[in-house]
Amino acid sequence: MAQANNDLDKPLERRGLLFVLSSPSGAGKSTLARKLLAAHNAISLSVSVTTRPPRPGEVDGEDYHFVDTPTFKRMVADGEFLEWAHVFGHRYGTPRAAVEAMLENGKDVLFDIDWQGTQQLFQEAGSDVVRVFILPPSIAELERRLRARGTDSDEVIEDRMARARAEIGHWDGYDYVLVNDDIDACFAKVEDILSAERLKRMRQKGLIGFARELMKDPQIRPS
Ligand code: ADP
Ligand code: 5GP
Shortest CA distance to 44 belongs to which of 26, 79, 5, 17? Predict the structure, then answer.
């Protein structure tokens, strides 16, 4: 019988995956991200660096690393970002070292980044990236959610609505597109995607050796 030797102790040891949630602002990606982090401890959030000022209640180091523009530019020059982009007049970037540390610690990494960042991440990490785009059920509901959230001025909300069209136009750069109508139903789909992607053959590091050992088992007789 095939025995689990040292190599095979962890046949399901995996390559970590980079799980991206993008959406037009207000469609619900932060809500979905929070639920995912609360329900699954094997996935950690990539905390972005931004030049945007903190909103009330946002915590430096938890929601974002808030920096000034010269600091951000220095980080770009030093190659500290895996990707970065201008969004809504501010700079946002994903710190490379933190992502590498999470993957080394056996965690999958969750990204709340826009389509520009998703493209760059995909160029860097290819099939390790799983791209999920969240759509609102309607534009009226998107605006209602932005107003109900109560975090932005009328001017900022108008700007976000004006950009929603352009952002929605990038839906086809993603592997999965979900409509966030009912939050619980949408979250269940996000969890389904994560589970299925984790099981993909290419992410299972120990499978080749494990299958070879199974095939060597003397109980398998040549036909
Ligand atoms: P995003 O991160 O995409 O900008 P948020 O997650 O902040 O969006 O969601 C915007 C607002 O809409 C929040 O107040 C959130 O509680 C609410 N919301 C999110 N999903 C739903 C949903 N399916 N139904 C109703 N309200 C929702
Ligand atoms: P907010 O200001 O509402 O927190 O974020 C605005 C937009 O910036 C969102 O679409 C969010 O996904 C995106 N974003 C946040 N962090 C990053 C990042 O590190 N890189 C990129 N490319 N986009 C980001």
Answer: 17
